[in-house]
């Protein structure tokens, strides 16, 4: 079994965290069965967020009787202290607990610090003093905010997108977290659906002893795959290295990583999904991406006003509006078949 310790939090768990965003999309009964199975088979870290609708409630219902054996991380998108307190109390109520192991600022556009005028960090510290939360973390999609958070010394964990398709910039964040004794929680370890070999994804991340991947689980089949890695962790053998090399070659260069640095789009376009649609429809069952939800996301591309907010914020130098338009043309040809 591979273990990871999240820096100075001391939280030590096996290298399979449960990402509880996708359980919003399934029923209470189904999610209770998945969560319980995850727990029974050894998963101990569950990551949710106030923003994930009923995800916290589902965790609370399914796992309240084993609360002390788990680590629960949640997140707040609050921008003011009053909102912070009301979100924290709601999260505790929904999760049916009186403390969170880790509370994270959820993808803020700046790094909250004491004295910045928002009162957010002060509220976080007070919640810790009162025992309502045990550790303070931050999640982000922006390299600059992530670096600032690490260098500030104010945070115990960073949650950031990280997979074998990541670049040297993300690797540097992992190294910096280690230097600062911070835990690194890897979101999008399957690069939002582009990586289809979970053993390769696992084995790549297993090289980093401060990195905990949280796998977004919605189906039992997916869960079973990750559960099997608790007892039999995949390691980077020649076969998996070949998978990684092939994917890097195939997906290398001018492709959207789904990092979301370019958001928000003033027209509400889901750029991380839409700018990768041509890749996604070729790497996953077609039906998933041709449903109504994705058709309406793709149709929104037509509302682009070419403000270039996205391209000017893309760290990979992509011409995002033209990439979106090419993806839409390609998608429409799939729809017409
Ligand atoms: S250029 Fe288009 S896609 Fe990009 S941010 Fe502006 S409206 Fe959104
Ligand atoms: S367009 Fe660039 S910034 Fe936006 S999600 Fe893709 S890679 Fe990230």
UniProtKB/TrEMBL annotation:
**Which InterPro entries does the annotation name?**
4Fe4S_Fe_S_CS (IPR017900), AKR (IPR020471), AKR2_Oxidoreductase (IPR053135), NAD(P)_OxRdtase_dom_sf (IPR036812), NADP_OxRdtase_dom (IPR023210)
- Which is one GO molecular function term here? oxidoreductase activity
Protein's name in the database: Predicted oxidoreductase of the aldo/keto reductase family
- Which UniProt keywords are present, listed alphabetically? Iron, Iron-sulfur, Metal-binding
Source organism per UniProt: Anaerocolumna jejuensis DSM 15929
The segment(s) forming the NADP-dependent oxidoreductase domain are 20-197
The protein's matches in SUPFAM superfamilies, at most eight in alphabetical order, are given as: 4Fe-4S ferredoxins (SSF54862), NAD(P)-linked oxidoreductase (SSF51430)
């Amino acid at each position: 079994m591979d273990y990871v310790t999240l820096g100075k939090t001391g939280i030590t768990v096996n290298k399979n965290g449960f990402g509880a965003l996708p359980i919003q999309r399934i029923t209470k009964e189904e999610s209770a069965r998945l969560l319980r199975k995850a727990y029974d088979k050894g998963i101990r870290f569950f990551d949710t967020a106030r923003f994930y609708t009923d995800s916290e409630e589902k965790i609370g219902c399914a796992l309240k009787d084993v609360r002390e054996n788990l680590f629960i991380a949640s997140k707040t998108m609050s921008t003011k202290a009053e909102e912070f307190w009301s979100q924290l109390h709601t999260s505790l109520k929904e999760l049916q607990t009186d403390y969170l192991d880790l509370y994270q600022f959820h993808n803020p556009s700046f790094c909250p610090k004491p004295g910045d005028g928002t009162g957010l960090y002060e509220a976080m510290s007070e919640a810790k003093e009162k025992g309502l939360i045990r550790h303070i973390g931050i999640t982000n999609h922006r390299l600059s905010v992530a670096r600032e958070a690490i260098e500030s010394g104010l945070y115990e964990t960073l949650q950031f997108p990280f997979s074998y398709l990541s670049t040297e910039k993300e690797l540097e964040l992992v190294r910096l977290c280690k230097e600062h004794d911070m835990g690194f929680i890897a979101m999008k370890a399957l690069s939002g659906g582009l990586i289809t070999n979970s053993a390769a994804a696992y084995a790549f991340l297993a090289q980093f002893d401060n990195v905990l991947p949280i796998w977004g689980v919605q189906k039992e089949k997916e869960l079973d795959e990750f559960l099997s890695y608790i007892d039999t962790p995949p390691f980077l053998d020649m076969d998996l290295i070949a998978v990684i090399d092939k994917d890097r070659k195939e997906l290398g260069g001018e492709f959207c990583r789904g990092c979301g640095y370019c958001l928000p789009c003033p027209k509400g376009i889901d750029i991380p999904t839409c700018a990768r649609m041509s890749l996604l429809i070729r790497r996953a069952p077609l039906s998933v991406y041709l449903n109504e939800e994705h058709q309406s996301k793709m149709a929104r591309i037509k509302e682009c006003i070419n403000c270039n907010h996205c391209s000017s914020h893309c760290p990979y130098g992509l011409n995002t509006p033209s990439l979106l338009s090419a993806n839409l043309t390609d998608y429409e040809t799939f729809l017409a078949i």
